[in-house]
Write a structure and sequence with these properties.
The complex is a heterodimer of chains A (439) and B (202). By secondary structure, chain A is α+β, with helices and mostly antiparallel strands. Chain A has one domain. Chain A is built from 13 helices and ten strands. In chain A, helix 4 packs across helix 5 and helix 8 packs antiparallel against helix 9. Chain B has a domain of 133 residues: Rossmann fold, CATH 3.40.50. Chain B is α/β, with parallel strands linked by helices and 202 residues long. In chain B, helix 2 packs parallel to helix 4. In chain B, a hairpin with a 2-residue loop joins strand 3 and strand 4. The chains are: A alpha+beta (439), B alpha/beta (202). At the A-B interface, strand 1, helix 6 and helix 8 of A face strand 1, strand 3 and strand 6 of B. Strand 1 of chain A pairs parallel with strand 6 of chain B, so a sheet runs across the interface.
Chain lengths: 439, 202
């Protein structure tokens, strides 16, 4: 009976370990196209490897990635389809599966469906709003901004609750520090709200959103350590006969997740492996964006949002609960191994009949338990890959007409990339033009 | 006996699995009046409630009768836009159309083609000048001018914590005298919903 158990348990553990989902994915073939600025080809390549990505990353990451790639490729309707699916999946993730939660506490966080990071939820709406605007549906673009604002308000409540939990779990704080969150208002979302409201003729709303941009900078200095863009602070109406061209540019790539491993010793030979995800920004090279028109007019865009900084800020508090959960899980696993070690030691020192086989079985189980603890612990590294890092804005007033324009993405005194586009400055509508450089 | 029970158990299990694995969606027809809420978002029940209430209000205030007494004809209304100022993608044209149908059906008001459809009508009339016979071609410059413009908006207010939310929709409609810009009728209806999402599922 005991021998059967000894054989069965390792088999179960091996099967469980082999079933663990791995949250890493190699997207270098997609990134090659993306970094060249060819989002269309990047999207095609990504979708070709769709099944692998779906297996390793899940539907949410897939939808966010395709949604963002198709946005930058100019396929706005498809982008909205995918980002809309992503938004629904994030909302559905609020209702957690009990069985998934049990698996998460036995194996690791990858056993649970990826619920999305808070910044992914908010920026999905912002990019959907840009999609609607590009499709000429300003009213729908405004709907997305309102949804984004609603989510921001919900986040404040969510963070307050998480903060309370962190306060009560004082002893479990990471390095004794209490994690706090600064983010409550996106300047970019409110800036777009200001532009759309203006285009829809809602002057009251326009002024409200403009004040909210200024508030975002004033109340969140750690997230906005750069000046308020002139295009938000100072917006005189265009001169009669002139048309305002609004520009928005996105640069860099959003943060990614890496695994960091720590060891917590339970006994001399037995330790708990803590595999934790850390959010790391990908430092972009672009430090300036200038838009040049063929009539010689040029406008230097100004930074309005550091998306990576907001992603890190909102992740910080969630990291606290990931840390606490991981400590409990790994300590429980390591304690199980320690108990088996103790049984084996006790049996070895016993003169009772059959104690040798008990010691042997316990040793075998202990070895497999250790292997399971080591292999089953892996950090949840799932995250979307194609949100940008920084957003820039600006405007210029010109005569109505057709212009050849170029977005110049600069690093120091050199231009890293030039994106040419044709712009129609038409009176009576919002002329919002977007540039993008992932470098 | 034991064998028979095992067999029944096995067959039941297979049938259960087979049913669970079926890929055809289950569709059933339901009464159009039945109230069915799935997501908590704006739906047909809300449209029904709001339009019924606003139409009742619009037709009961007596402005149409006053107009008839003064002009010996029905007032002519052009249905304008109902702006979606909410945080949901709502097709407001459904409300506009329901209001227009109710106004026409009441016999108290006439409507003319709305702004979005007018271009199609004008194009058709222009083409008739070339392709239709002289006797049957619609005449130019014979459109009926509207006396009133109906327009409105939908706004939402959401109060939510965790999985609980109170979502309130404010739908307003107003009738504006095109000559004087005077608002001759204005009303608002509110739909308030309490939505609770379950925290756990199996």
């Amino acid at each position: 009976m005991k021998l059967r158990l000894a054989l069965l348990l390792p088999l179960v553990l091996t099967t469980a370990t082999s079933c663990l989902s791995i949250s890493r994915v190699d997207l270098s073939h997609v990134d090659t196209w993306y970094l060249q600025g060819d989002a269309k080809q990047a999207a095609v390549t990504y979708e070709k490897n769709g099944s692998d990505i779906l297996d390793s990353q899940g539907r949410l990451v897939y939808s966010l990635d395709v949604g963002m790639l198709t946005h930058f490729a100019g396929d706005y309707a498809r982008s909205n389809e995918y980002l809309g699916v992503a938004e629904t999946l994030i909302a559905e993730a609020y209702t957690q599966s009990v069985t998934e939660n049990i698996s998460r506490f036995i194996i690791n966080d990858n056993a649970k469906t990826y619920p999305g990071e808070d910044y992914e939820d908010i920026y999905s709406n912002i990019f959907m709003s840009l999609n609607y605007q590009a499709l000429g549906r300003t009213e729908d673009a405004m709907v997305e901004i309102r949804r984004s604002s609603e989510k921001e308000r919900l986040l404040i409540d969510k963070y307050s609750m998480l903060m309370e939990k962190s306060k009560s779990a004082k002893s479990d704080r990471i390095d004794g520090e209490l994690q706090t969150i600064s983010f409550s208002k996106s300047a970019l979302s409110n800036y777009l709200g200001m532009l759309y409201s203006d285009a829809l003729g809602n002057i009251g709303d326009r002024d409200y959103y403009r004040r909210s941009v200024l508030d975002a900078f004033a109340i969140q200095p750690t997230l906005y350590p750069f000046p308020v863009p002139d295009s938000a602070e100072n917006r005189p109406d265009p001169e009669i006969g002139k048309v305002r061209l609004e520009f928005i540019a996105f640069t860099g790539m959003g943060p990614t997740k890496f695994e960091t491993v720590r060891q917590l010793y339970v006994s001399k030979n037995n330790y708990a492996k803590l595999a934790l995800p850390i959010l790391v920004p990908r430092n972009g090279r672009v430090d300036g964006v200038t838009v040049r028109l063929d009539n010689g007019v040029q406008v230097r865009l100004q930074r309005i949002e550091d998306l990576s900084r907001i992603a890190q800020d909102t992740f910080a508090l969630r990291f606290q609960s990931i840390y606490n959960r991981t400590v409990i899980r790994t300590m429980a696993k390591a304690t199980g191994t320690a108990v088996l070690d103790t049984i084996a030691d006790g049996a070895r020192n016993s003169d009772e009949q059959g104690s040798e086989s008990v010691a042997m079985i316990s040793d075998i189980l202990s070895v497999f338990s250790s292997i399971f603890n080591q292999t089953s612990e892996s950090a949840d590294l799932r995250i979307s890959h194609y949100f940008p890092a920084v957003a820039w804005v600006g405007y210029v007033d010109v005569d109505p007409g057709l212009y050849e324009a170029s977005f110049n993405f600069e690093s120091g005194s050199s231009t890293l990339r030039r994106q040419r586009t044709r712009i129609l400055a038409s009176p009576g509508s919002l002329n919002l033009h977007e540039g993008f450089c992932p470098l | 006996m034991k064998k028979a029970m095992s067999l029944i158990g096995a067959v039941s299990l297979i049938l259960l699995l087979a049913t669970a694995c079926t890929s055809t969606p289950k569709v059933s027809r339901i009464d159009a009046q039945e109230q069915l809420d799935l997501s908590g978002n704006w739906n047909d029940t809300d449209i029904q409630l709001v339009t019924e209430s606003l139409i009742r209000s619009c037709l009961s205030t007596g402005w149409a009768d006053d107009f008839y007494r003064a002009n010996r004809r029905n007032p002519v209304i052009v249905i304008g836009t109902i702006a979606n100022n909410s945080s949901e993608h709502i097709d407001t044209s459904i409300i506009s159309k329901k209001v227009e149908i109710a106004l026409l059906s009441s016999g108290k008001a006439d409507t003319v083609a709305d702004i979005a459809k007018r271009d199609d009508v004008r194009k058709e009339r222009e083409e008739q000048q070339y392709y239709a016979s002289v006797d049957t071609a619609a005449q130019l410059a014979q459109e009926t001018g509207a006396d009133f413009l109906m327009q409105g908006s939908i706004k939402t207010n959401v109060d939510q914590v965790g999985g609980k939310a109170v979502r309130t929709y404010y739908v307003d409609l107003e009738l504006i005298d095109i000559t004087t810009s005077r608002k001759i009728w204005l009303d608002e209806d509110t739909v308030k919903k309490y939505i609770e999402k379950s925290r756990y599922r199996f």
